[in-house]
Every structure is written in C-alpha cells, then in structure tokens.
Design goal:
membrane; six-stranded mixed sheet; cell division; Cell division ATP-binding protein FtsE; about 230 residues; four-stranded antiparallel sheet; ATP-binding; binds adenosine-5'-triphosphate
Length: about 230
C-alpha cells in the first residue's frame, strides 16, 4: 500500500533529510516510525501526503506513483490518506460534528450521508454523545479522538499519525493505539511517527527507525537491527 524505493529528500537549503530510504507497508499493516529529533520522520510522512516531493527515488501509494503526480491531482490522492497530528488542528468555533464532517463537505458528499458517516466515525472513537459540543469543552484525549474520527470519516485505506499521543498520559495513549489497531484490523495501513519507545515496545509491531535520514534495517518481525 505504501512503497518507498531508494527515496532521498534534499531541501533547498542543501540539507539532506532522507537518504536512500526503501521499505514497503502492506494492506492492514501497522508500523511505527521512530528516530531522533530531525531524523526525517515528518519529512517521510510529508512525502506520502504530497506536501513534499522526493529529490530521488520512488514513492508509491495505493499503486500510484506520487513523484510525477500533477498538482491538480493532489487533493484526490489526499482523500485516500487520513492524517492525525499532535496538535490535531481542530476548529474551535465549530462543533465536534462539524469538525469531523469537514473532509466530506469538501468532497461534496450529500447532507444525509454526511450525518450517517460522521456519526459512525464518532461512534468508533466513543464520542457519539459529544457531537454537539465544542472541542474546547473536551479533554486532550477526547480532542485527539475527534481528530482521529475526522481522519477516518471518509474511510481512507491509509492512516498516518505524527506524534498522536504526544500530550497524553500513558493510559490515554494506549486507548489511542488500540483505536489504530482496530483500523489496521479492518485493512487500513497505519504508520505512526512517535518518540514514545515504551508505547512502541508494548505494542510489538514493526518499527521503522530513521537515523540522520537513513533507515536502519528492520526485519518484518519488528526487531530493529542497527
Ligand atoms: N522545509 C524544510 N526546509 C529545510 N529543511 C527542512 C525542512 N523541513 C525539515 N527540514 C530539515 O530536515 C531534517 C529532518 O526534519 P524532520 O522534520 O523530517 O525530522 P523529524 O524526525 O520529524 O524531527 P522531530 O522529531 O523533531 O519532529 C531536519 O534537519 C530539518 O531541519
């Protein structure tokens, strides 16, 4: 579902953020992306989201080569990728329902379908009873779950998360991870960038580790070999 072939990314400043990175993630696979600050984790996610383009190598998502994707196609590619960020980027002047509905509104989904799909997504993250509230009235963990509901409301086959548990205590972090596991069980490919080593170890999933832009060897079982 996600494939990197010898991908390098050099920013204009002549700084190489990724060097010859190759890996593949299959349908329904859940993996973690780790590495020191500045190792290139966000850059790798940005290449999948077409927020950046590779300087060399190939990025293939859902069978589509992203390198040469014309700009006007970018919104269509992004519809197939859900993204969750640490600061969850919710709009505080709209209700929980409206926040989750946003991607569907952009896609021109009918009013009736929006209601059905938003409620299904909120139900999945356990927030159906809070649809009329403003995100400001919710706890940090609940806000993060609203962000996850918004990311999955159009059922994307790929879900990316950048430090999704950064502000949360261990118990809430485990809840969020459990949600990600549930999505992977129904076939969603999930890639989670995090510094939370304890959490990663507790999950026993595959780990992709970047160091200074290079991917360390990762056998499929998940153990990292430097
Ligand atoms: N737009 C940009 N222009 C120039 N350099 C950049 C840009 N974005 C990132 N970099 C550099 O590329 C390197 C990798 O950054 P990146 O944000 O991908 O790392 P990261 O692993 O996500 O770090 P962190 O864990 O701190 O978020 C860093 O040295 C960073 O300064």
């Amino acid at each position: 579902m996600i494939e990197f072939q010898q991908v390098s990314k050099r920013y204009d400043s002549d700084h190489t953020a990724l060097r010859h990175v190759s890996f593949g993630l299959g349908r329904g696979e859940l993996a973690f992306l780790t590495g020191h600050s500045g190792a290139g984790k966000s850059t790798l996610l940005k290449l999948i989201l077409l927020m950046e383009r590779p300087s060399a190598g190939k990025v293939v998502v859902g069978g589509q080569l992203l390198n040469t994707m014309p700009r006007r196609q970018i919104p269509y590619v992004r519809r197939h990728i859900g993204a969750v960020f640490q600061n969850h980027q919710l709009l505080f002047d709209r209700t929980v329902f409206d926040n989750v509905a946003m991607p569907l509104e952009v896609m021109g989904v009918s009013h009736q379908d929006i209601g059905r799909r938003v409620r299904a997504a909120l139900d999945k993250v356990g927030l159906l009873s809070k649809e009329k509230m403003n995100p400001v009235q919710l706890s940090g963990g609940e806000q993060q779950r609203v962000g996850i509901a918004r990311a999955v409301v159009n059922k994307p086959p790929v879900l990316l998360a950048d430090e999704p548990t950064g502000n949360l205590d261990p118990e809430l972090s485990a809840d969020i991870m459990h949600l990600f596991e549930q999505f992977s069980q129904v076939g969603v490919t999930v890639l989670i960038a995090t510094h939370d080593i304890a959490l990663i170890e507790s999950m026993g999933r595959r780990r992709l580790t970047l160091a200074h832009g290079e991917l360390l060897t990762t056998p499929p079982a998940g153990r990292v070999v430097a």
